[in-house]
Amino acid sequence: MPELFRSLARSAASAAGFENFVPDACLVNQYHPGTKLSLHQDKEELDLNAPIVSVSLGIPAVFQFGGFERNSMKINTGLFHGDVVVWGGVDRLRYHGVSTIKQNMHPILGERRINLTFRKVMHQK
User: Fold this and answer.
1) pLDDT by residue for the chain (125 residues), tens digit each?
2) pTM reported for the whole predicted model
3) Is residue 41, in this structure, part of any structural domain at all?
4) Looking at the domain assignment, is residue 125 inside a domain?
5) C-beta separation of 117 from 30 below 8 A
6) What is the CATH number for 104?
7) Residue 19 domain-assigned?
């Protein structure tokens, strides 16, 4: 992963109270109008104590942040180009997703949204 990305994720995590976060994976998702990301939990990592850092680029999206059951009440939050979301600790296994992306245009990325999700996949040594 480029050092600039790692530094961004570490800085965001630190600002949210996760000072020792060192990501070793970056998932890149691309969305176009009409696509979405269903509610899910990120629980495949070996270290669930590490937070998740999510960076939004391009057209807006509505982030859904739910409870610990898929059918729990959700909070919907608008995400815009440059927004960063960090969650971990007791909230690490909350269900989350992205509502269907609405038609929009970003001056650089056009009709798409790119999301960078930083995680710690391996155990701390």
Assistant:
1) 899 999 999 999 999 999 999 999 999 999 999 999 999 998 888 888 899 999 999 999 999 999 999 999 999 999 999 999 999 999 999 999 999 999 999 999 999 999 999 999 886 55
2) 0.91
3) yes
4) no
5) no
6) 2.60.120.590
7) yes
